[in-house]
Amino acid sequence: MREFWGRLPVIHQLRQSVGLQRGMLVTGLVITGVFLLTALLAPLLAPYGFGQLRADGVAFGAQQPPSSAHPLGTTVGGYDVLSRVIWGAQTAIFVIVVAVLLSIFAGVLLGLVSGYFGGTLDRILVVVCDAIYAFPSLLLAIVMSIVISGGESNLIGGVLAAAISITVVFIPQYFRVIRAETVRIKAEAYVESAKVLGASNARVMFRHVLRNATRTLPLIFTLNASEAILTLAGLGFLGFGIEPTSAAEWGYDLNKSLSDVTSGIWWTALFPGLAIVLVVLGITLVGESLNDLADPRLRGRRASEQAPGTVAEISVVPGGALTAGPGGLGGLEPTAMLGDEGREAQA
Amino acid sequence: MSDTVVSIENLAVTFATDAGDVTAVDGVSLSVARGEVLAIVGESGSGKTVTAKTILGLLPETATADGAVYLGTRDGSGESNVITLDKRQLRAVRGRDVAMVFQEPSTALNPVYTVGWQIAEGLRAHGTYSKRQARAKAIDILGRVGIPDPASRVDYYPHQFSGGQKQRVVIAMALVLDPGLIVADEPTTALDVTVQAEILDLLRRCRDEFGTAIVLITHNMGVVADLADRVAVMYEGKVVEEADAITLFSNPQDEYTKRLLAAVPHVGQGTVHAASRAEGRALDWAEQKPVVLAEGLHISYPGRLGRPAFVAVDGVDLEIRAGEVLGLVGESGSGKTTIGRAIAGLTRVTGGSLSVLGHEMRGMKERHFKPVRSEIGFVFQDPASSFNPLLTIADCVAEPLIIHHYASSAADARARVNELLEAVQLPSAYGDRYPHELSGGQRQRASLARALALKPSLLIADEPTSALDVSVQARVLELFAELQREFGFAALFISHDLAVVDLVADRIAVLYKGKLVEEGTGLEVLGAPRHPYTQRLLASLPVPDPREQAERREALARLRGAD
Question: Which stretches does the entry tag as region Disordered (chain A) (predicted)?
């Protein structure tokens, strides 16, 4: 059972990590976990609906300061801030899932084909992707969002518009990474060996190249997820987001609270902003730690437990420990003598 | 003034890895006297490199060292225990008291600085030199390591030197501060055998002229016999035997040393074997249609824009008959691998004619060639990279059976895979392992199993043993000969090592700069070489016997003088 858990991607890395790297990873995982749970349990956690303006026939009132009925106050539009922040997590998840799913399939397939066959197709695709890079991603997302939704913004339309506009920005990233890996792996001996055996291009591509090229995908996935949230918030902030009656969206709320900030109403801007910062921080921490842990040269390790020198010095053995020689002190297991603090101290 | 430059006492080094602690060096005690060459030999993983790197304090952060390494200064005035030094003190010791020569000269030099600058950098780290002084010293040292025209070469960049010259520059960098000790980690492994002989000469001169002691780390017993005064044999982190070179080679004591020496291939071993095979052949064998026939074979790689194409193979004629092993020998860049790849259809033929199993390779279409592929097996040089790391060994060996529709899935092919694994002396349970869970030799045997899965009539082996340790190499070569007897395939055996080719080949072809310079049986080519290049190649090959090697060295010097 332990073996099985150890093989799961994130848990495996969590086991490997030590010190600061483990701290970063755990922090990231906790924040991301809270984010996911919030999104999942939004209907239970949120006191009101995201588009709810009144309870029991009584309106909430606009810009109410935090109170027992509204722990985080209400917005200028008269919505409950806490409920909007909690429901916003759900919208963010929707957008991340749709955006990443769309871009991962298209990007990986294009990258694989482009890198494997090379030639003219490869050149054209690379140039197109470079051209997309040259646009500011938010501008591109705005253009896409106008093209796709044309100003209409119910939940599905709004989420799809945001997701597809983010997808256009992300495809080149997946394309680039997979293409670079494919070009590298194409020259590996095991690919040549498959070719010598007479394997077809499709077989070589999918059986031998693809599976070896996808190692870095979880890393880009986490980094892109945080970028997707930022882009979504940016779109919402600029007024290309989702209507408040369709779904809660942090960027939209921030936009509406612009004028509040100058008049001393802090709660409408603070909490959606904080939500964005925390979620992006959490996912980025997970991504960066996974990135560091995947590279043996960047990965920190526990100091060797069998530190014969230390043992020989601190243990009193009749006849002198040194004659026993390093590693030759059978009965003196260093683990038994040094607690966890002892090992940390050596590190 | 003390007599030893470095003395290692009871050194133990442990590495923290993902799989727990690994002890690399376990209670090693060694010492090196002034002006002495100590060779540390052993197979990969024996801890020889770790021991040597400890002398420079070059261990990675994950390593814990225990014991003592006392390093004396050049004038013998003092000594320091490297293990207890902090980083600043270590920097002072490196370069001044001990310097290092690395395995791969092309990566040890920084490509964006001139060699003069890189030599001066070492000087500046250990004292104040004006630009002019540093340059003068750099020119002086380049001249002394045998770089022609050092005054202008000092401003050259590394890529303007050949591999052997680069290694000379690396040695110059090590010598410039006149350290008492040089640690040379496989200094000739990346070099061709003729260049190797020159670098070994230079290292010998370091000892004789500069009075520098050398710790030589190598797996090549010939190099040891050529250069070493004393030899320490390491096995599993321990020194199993230590003796002066002549005693060790003539009268090895330890069981492991004896096995190691016995595994080293000698030129001339294969002659008897090849002769007996030739006798056993049918009379009309020579008239049969050859499996591979090359006539005026010409292969060139397109040059970059505005540059002429690079000619890798230039007008080569050769043939391989059914059931015959042709050994193809040459140095790096001689085009031997290109020929192998062309026969397997991995490289396009640009001129002449190459017929493989009756199929013309010039202008061939992959579609037409595909059925022929089941008749060709290919064994790659590096067993570590020739297996898809995500598939089990059984899956990898089953690949050819699935591709050519002899089996529908890996599970379906398992019975045949088990037979194949047994044929290459691997337990069938190894089929469920992943490639990284096998040792280099086991992987190369699995590679043979994969190549033989379809019972090919032609096998191409591209340096199949050059990535293996010498004792493992011996077993793989033995297995290769056995399988060849059993399956009766024709083979092209590509190697840079004359002794290895001699062991397995019926005929030997020598390539030099894309041209075939000599071809014949082992007895003809190795016994009485006609072409001057073959003669030089043969004379440069160090033999694992210090006395014989000393004679050969003189013979080589005469040969060079005659050029």
Answer: 325-347
Whole-number Å distance between alpha carbons of B345 and B354: 11
Please give the residue of chain A at the shortest CA–CA distance from B15: A304
Chain A: give the shortest CA distance to residue B102, in Å: 20
Interchain CB distance below 8 Å, A309 and B389 = no
Q: How far is B229 from chain A (nearest CA, A)?
A: 29
b/e per residue, B126-152, with b = 16+ CB within 10 A? eeeeeeeebbebbbebbbbbbbeebee
Search chain A and give the residue with CA nearest B63: A304
Q: How near does any CA of chain A get to the CA of B405, in Å?
A: 11
Residues 6 or more apart whose CB falls under 8 angstroms from that of A274 comprise: none
Single-letter amino acid, residue A213 = A
Does the pLDDT at position A242 exceed 80? no
Q: Which of A40, A29, A46, A131 is nearest to A83 (CA)?
A: A46
Contacts of B254 (CB under 8 A, 6+ apart): B233, B240, B241
The residue among A314, B168, B514 whose CA lies nearest residue A334 is A314
**Interatomic CA distance for residues B334 and B329, integer angstroms:** 9
Does A206 contact chain B (CB < 8 Å)? no
Average pLDDT over residues A16-26: 83
pTM: 0.76
pLDDT value, residue B240: 92
pLDDT value of position A313: 31
Does A336 touch chain B if contact means CB atoms closer than 8 Å? no
Please determine, for residue B458, whether its predicted confidence score (pLDDT) is greater than 60. yes
Q: Partners of B37 in the beta sheet?
A: B214
pLDDT (0 to 100) of residue B563: 63
Spatial separation of the C-alpha atoms in residues B460 and B458, rounded to whole Å:
7
Better-predicted residue by pLDDT, A239 or B490: B490
| Radius of gyration from C-alpha coordinates of chain A | 27
Please say if the pLDDT value at position B306 is more than 90.
Answer: no
Could you give the C-alpha distances from A213 to A71, A108, A142, B248, B561, in angstroms and in order?
48, 9, 32, 49, 54
Q: Which two tokens stand for residue B361?
A: 């390779």
C-beta atoms of B62 and A208 within 8 A:
no
Closest-CA distance, A214 to chain B, in angstroms, reads: 12
Which of A196, A203, A329 to substitute to test the interface with B, most B CBs within 10 Å? A196
Share of chain A above pLDDT 70, in %: 80
Per-residue pLDDT band for A336 (boundaries 50, 70, 90) equals very low
- Count Cβ atoms below 10 Å from residue B67 Cβ, excluding itself: 22
Name the CA radius of gyration of chain B, rounded.
Answer: 26
Alpha helices by DSSP H, chain A = 2-7, 9-16, 19-40, 42-45, 81-117, 119-134, 137-149, 155-186, 189-196, 201-203, 211-213, 217-237, 250-256, 258-262, 267-294, 308-314, 321-324, 334-337, 340-346
A207 in contact with chain B, both atoms CB, cutoff 8 A: yes
CB contacts of B346 in chain A (<8 Å) are 192, 195-196
H or E element in which residue B451 lies: helix B440-452
Q: What is the mean pLDDT of chain B?
A: 87
Q: What is the distance between the alpha carbons of residues B126 and B92, in angstroms, rounded to a whole number?
A: 7
> What percent of chain B shows pLDDT beyond 70?
97
The pLDDT value given to residue B162: 85
Residue A317 — very low, low, confident or very high, per pLDDT cuts 50/70/90? very low
| Residue range B154-206, pLDDT digits in tens | 999 998 888 888 999 999 999 888 888 999 988 888 788 888 888 898 999 88
Exposed e or buried b for every residue in A292-319, given b needs 16+ CB within 10 A? Answer: bbeeeeebbbbbbbbbbbbbbeeeeeee
The beta-carbon neighbor of B378 closest among A193, A199, A308 is: A193
pLDDT for residue A333 is more than 70:
no
Q: Does A16 touch chain B (CB under 8 A)?
A: yes
